[in-house]
User: Fold this.
Amino acid sequence: MEGFKSVNKLLEKSFRENWERDALSNYQGTTLKYCDVAKRIKYLHICFESCGLEKGDKVALCARNQANWGVCFLAAMTYGAVPVPILHEFKPENIHYLVNHSEAKVLFVDEVIWEGLSETEMPDLQVIVRINTLNYIYARNNSLVEVREKLSENFKRLFPEGFGPDDVSYYEDSPEELAIINYTSGTSGFSKGVMLPYRALWTNLRAASQTAEPQMNCESEVVAMLPSAHMYGLMFEFLFEMTIGAHVHFLTRVPSPKIIMKAFSEIRPDIIIAVPLIIEKVYKSQIKPIVDRHKSYLRIPIVDQVILKKIRTGLIDAFGGRFEEIILGGAAFNPEVEAFLGRIHFPFTVGYGMTECAPLITYAKWYTCKRGSCGKPIPGCEVRIDSPNPAKIPGEVQIKGDNVFLGYYKNREATRLAFTNDDWFKTGDMGVMDSDGFLYLRGRSKCMILGPSGQNIYPEELEAVINNVTYVVDSLVVEDNGGLTALIYPDYHLAELDGMTRDELEKRISDGLPEINRLLPGYAQIRKIEFMPEDFERTPKRSIKRYLYQR
Assistant:
């Protein structure tokens, strides 16, 4: 791989150069400087050696976002071990299975999550470590406990003059070497262990530093609100920042919109990485009411620009006022919201990625990206559309490049099915690509519904229309006895504040079905609406687990 540099050596350089800078913070809590993180990493390396951990052995992490999550991840990778991030939302039986399936020898775990786990269910583990304190919960033998108890004493003996920048020395990785096993949380079934090589990490880091965010540097501030165990958050809210000496603030609590917006106003991040749902909620609760109230004025030239400029300024201030752009990914973006933000020239862009590509596939800066697209292929990545007319007829999006994974861990059949005969990765997403190389997604091939006359119906496109209806939080369109049914989760709380009963709200939305269908193609008419008493089950990146609701 031309131009490849060791990811771990890049981290080593960053730690040495940014020794006294702030590195990782728990929002409204502890802050660790790069020197503090480096020292903790060294402590853990000593413990890894005592456990007999070898290069290539697996180290599992299962915890909420926090500074020590970052410490433990970096400790594993810079040692030459393979980190295995596991989403803390998984049920205990799934966590047991994934720790065993990955053959992990060490587990870092949140004490709250540990309450539902048992060491007897994970017999291959040498040690289990409470991630917030780095104390052992379990050790296979007493000699490991003794090493932990004498760690400070041994550390002082190893570094009698103190631990300094010159003492930082990390494992030098190679392009095809396995870097991470990341278990997908996908919406289509059971998790698979995605094996990501160092070249995939390097390709994403290069895209971030040279293409996406070249303005970022050691003085940049970032709010980490996405799950660090998911590649989107891991790569662009944490790992990239560590290679440039930036300061990462972890939201350790459940990131509700209120907490997120408060953190933005206080930290004033230089870049914002988010899923569309966050922007859509802000639009629906704060902007749409203003737009609806001033509809008549927005039709008047000059006056409309004054109003729109005021909305834009208020929205930028709400997100901290200092960010260069908001990068959205992980799910489809509502077209109405996208169109409005484009109208006010709000600095946002929509990227496209998958865990299997570590994760970035396409991206473009906010001022160059075409509306409705998710950018162009990043350097080192090729994209093709499996269609007789890729610009007009949707086909499967297929990928080849340095960002593509090695395969699924211990699952040869799934690996075989994931690639074409000429070695292109089959994403399962449908899309078209224009003559300028911009990709436009149309939906998941697995979600596609065949219409009455053989038309391809992408439910995501119908849901985008339904989700624009007042009081609709989210929706899911499913095939139901030859027709289409919309499952809708309404905002019962907001309706109640507006003086509506549950029945009145449901009747209001149901009565709007003809208007919804007026906006949809004739072959994609919604036959009926069903209401969800509570929100849909979701993945950590807030996608609906579609497979749970199919008829």
In short: The chain has 18 helices and 27 strands.
